[in-house]
């Protein structure tokens, strides 16, 4: 059988098995086999009401318990699951005789210590409080610039015209991508992010390979350029490490683009949705721009962009009274854990004032805790302040189309009307 036919057959069979199990009531199949735009929160509730740890006939476990998710994420007996282990096909490929690096499969996000520790350490300095302070001005400038482009238009797409542009530009500047290449950089980022959910058909697989091929060629050029003329960006710092392989350099750079892109786009979108749905929150935001931080934090808890992650034990172990065989995936429903009533009072209510607002798991926990959490918080708060400062009467203007993804939750298309524009931008919050 040719590899193309085999891949198509595996994809088809995989979907058919999941659909059948979903009809039989299997919790994992219901989650992964239903329309990706459907509200997932009732499924998380039903998982939690079935027990702290729920077994699926699909050979994995699920939990929506905050305590259990946090414990597994911090437990060195569990490791990350290489993406290939969960997918029926290998989405990396050979093009022109050279193997493409799929960031999802090779970066430190999906590597265990000691490789994880070594690679994460190389880029960590950009994300410390000191590193972030250096980026605050860039973030404010980028937000203002894109809002200037929206200007006095009566309607716009909050995602396409604004939220989707800010994070990719910030990452591009961090990595040292020249301005002229930033549009292509954004296009590749989108293609790579779409693959995070797993490729669904051959067309998507081809698009992924094409995107990876172009992106790697671009990165090779950027690396050569930075070797010759180093700057104070991340790529320049990475190329200075002689012991870093080309694959690790490509995977690390791609990870920063992919991890920080759609996640932050959807945080901005989900936070704006929350403000539109809660007039009292809008009133407070207009009155006190500094409360954007709390609004962002409560959005991360109630409607996080990353809905789940997966770990597996290196050896057979016991978890919540069940024996989990070695290398069995345990799906940690972060978005479900964020509504666990054992931790959060009245968990389905949007309340930026809750005292434990930062106890959520939206950025995961343990050694893989999101490296860009501080940057994402800063970008989303600046975006909210900018948006509502300029357009205090912002309203939804039509149907919001959700991203067709189970892993990343947010709006793909978010039409809004600006109302009467107010030319006075809000002052940045000082916290
Ligand atoms: C709202 C925005 C974001 C959310 C919700 C988010 C969420 C997450 C989550 C849940 C993980 C851990 C996954 C796991 O434990 O398996 C993670 C890891 C990571 N994130 Fe983020 N992220 C966001 C923004 C960013 C940004 C802006 C960057 C950087 C530019 C970034 C870079 C990373 C990196 C490098 C990792 C891997 C950390 C490791 O494996 O040690 N993220 N993120």
Gist of the model:
With about 425 residues, the chain is of the alpha+beta class. It is built from 19 helices and 14 strands.
List the helices and strands and how they pair.
Layout: H1 3-23, H2 27-33, H3 41-49, E1 54-56, E2 60-63, H4 66-74, E3 78-80, H5 83-86, E4 94-95, E5 98-99, H6 103-106, H7 115-123, H8 129-150, E6 155-157, H9 158-163, H10 166-175, H11 182-194, H12 202-228, H13 234-239, H14 246-260, H15 262-277, H16 279-287, H17 292-302, E7 309-313, E8 317-319, E9 322-324, E10 330-332, H18 334-337, H19 373-390, E11 395-396, E12 401-402, E13 411-413, E14 415-417
Helix pairs in contact: 1-2, 8-10, 8-19, 10-14, 11-12, 11-14, 15-16, 15-17, 15-19, 17-19
Bound molecules: protoporphyrin IX containing FE.
Q: Tell me the name of the CATH class.
A: Mainly Alpha
How many E strands? 14
Task: Calculate Rg over CA atoms.
Answer: 22 Å
Number of helices, counting only DSSP H or I runs of 4 residues or more: 19
Which ligands are bound? Answer: protoporphyrin IX containing FE
* Average residue-wise pLDDT: 87
Proportion of β residues? 5-15%
Major sheet summary line: 5 strands, mixed
What does this structure look like?
By secondary structure, the protein is of the alpha+beta class. The protein has one domain (3-417): Cytochrome p450, CATH 1.10.630. The chain has 19 helices and 14 strands. It has helices at residues 3-23, 27-33, 41-49, 66-74, 83-86, 103-106, 115-123, 129-150, 158-163, 166-175, 182-194, 202-228, 234-239, 246-260, 262-277, 279-287, 292-302, 334-337, 373-390; strands at 54-56, 60-63, 78-80, 94-95, 98-99, 155-157, 309-313, 317-319, 322-324, 330-332, 395-396, 401-402, 411-413, 415-417. It has a 5-stranded mixed sheet with strand order 1-2-10-7-3, with helices on both faces. A hairpin with a 2-residue loop joins β4 and β5. The protein is globular. The protein binds protoporphyrin IX containing FE. Protoporphyrin IX containing FE (HEM) is lined by residues 80, 108-109, 120, 171, 255-256, 259-260, 263-264, 267, 304-306, 309, 362-364, 368, 370-372, 375-376. Protoporphyrin IX containing FE is lined by residues 80, 108-109, 120, 171, 255-256, 259-260, 263-264, 267, 304-306, 309, 362-364, 368, 370-372, 375-376.
């Amino acid at each position: 059988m040719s590899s193309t036919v085999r891949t198509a057959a595996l994809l088809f069979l995989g979907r058919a098995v999941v659909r059948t199990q979903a009809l039989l009531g299997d919790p994992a199949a219901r989650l992964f086999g239903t329309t990706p735009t459907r509200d997932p929160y009732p499924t998380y509730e039903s998982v939690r009401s079935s027990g702290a740890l729920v077994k699926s006939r699909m050979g994995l476990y699920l939990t929506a318990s905050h305590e259990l998710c946090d414990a597994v994420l911090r437990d060195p007996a569990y490791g990350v699951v290489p993406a290939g282990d969960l997918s029926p096909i290998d989405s990396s490929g050979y093009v022109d005789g050279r193997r493409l690096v799929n960031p999802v499969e090779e970066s430190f996000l999906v590597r265990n210590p000691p490789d994880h520790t070594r690679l994460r350490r190389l880029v960590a300095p950009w994300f410390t409080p000191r590193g972030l302070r250096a980026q605050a001005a860039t973030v404010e400038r980028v937000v203002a610039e894109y809002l200037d482009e929206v200007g006095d238009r009566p309607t716009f797409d909050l995602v396409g015209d604004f939220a989707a542009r800010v994070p990719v530009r910030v990452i591009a500047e961090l990595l040292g991508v020249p301005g002229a290449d930033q549009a292509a950089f954004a296009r590749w980022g989108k293609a790579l992010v779409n693959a995070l959910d797993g490729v669904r058909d051959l067309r998507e697989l081809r698009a992924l390979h094409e995107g990876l091929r172009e992106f790697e060629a671009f990165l090779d050029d950027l690396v050569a350029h930075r070797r010759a003329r180093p700057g104070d960006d991340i790529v320049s710092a990475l190329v200075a490490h002689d012991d870093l392989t080309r694959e690790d350099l490509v995977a690390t750079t791609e990870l920063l683009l992919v991890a920080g892109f759609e996640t932050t786009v959807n945080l901005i979108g989900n936070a704006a949705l929350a403000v539109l749905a809660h007039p009292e929150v809008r009133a407070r935001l207009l009155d006190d721009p500094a409360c954007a931080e709390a609004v962002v934090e409560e959005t991360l808890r109630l409607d996080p962009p990353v809905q789940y992650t997966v770990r597996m034990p290196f050896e057979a172990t016991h978890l919540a009274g069940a024996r989990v065989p070695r290398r069995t995936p345990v799906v940690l429903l972060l978005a479900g854990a964020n509504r666990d009533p054992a931790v959060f009072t009245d968990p389905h209510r949007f309340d930026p004032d809750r005292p434990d607002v930062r106890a959520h798991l939206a950025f995961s926990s343990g050694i893989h805790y999101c490296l860009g959490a501080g940057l994402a918080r800063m970008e989303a708060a600046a975006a909210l302040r900018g948006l509502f400062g300029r357009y205090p009467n912002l309203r939804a203007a039509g149907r919001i189309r959700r991203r067709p993804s189970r892993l990343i939750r947010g709006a793909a298309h978010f039409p809004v009307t600006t109302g009467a524009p107010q030319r006075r931008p809000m002052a940045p919050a000082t916290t």
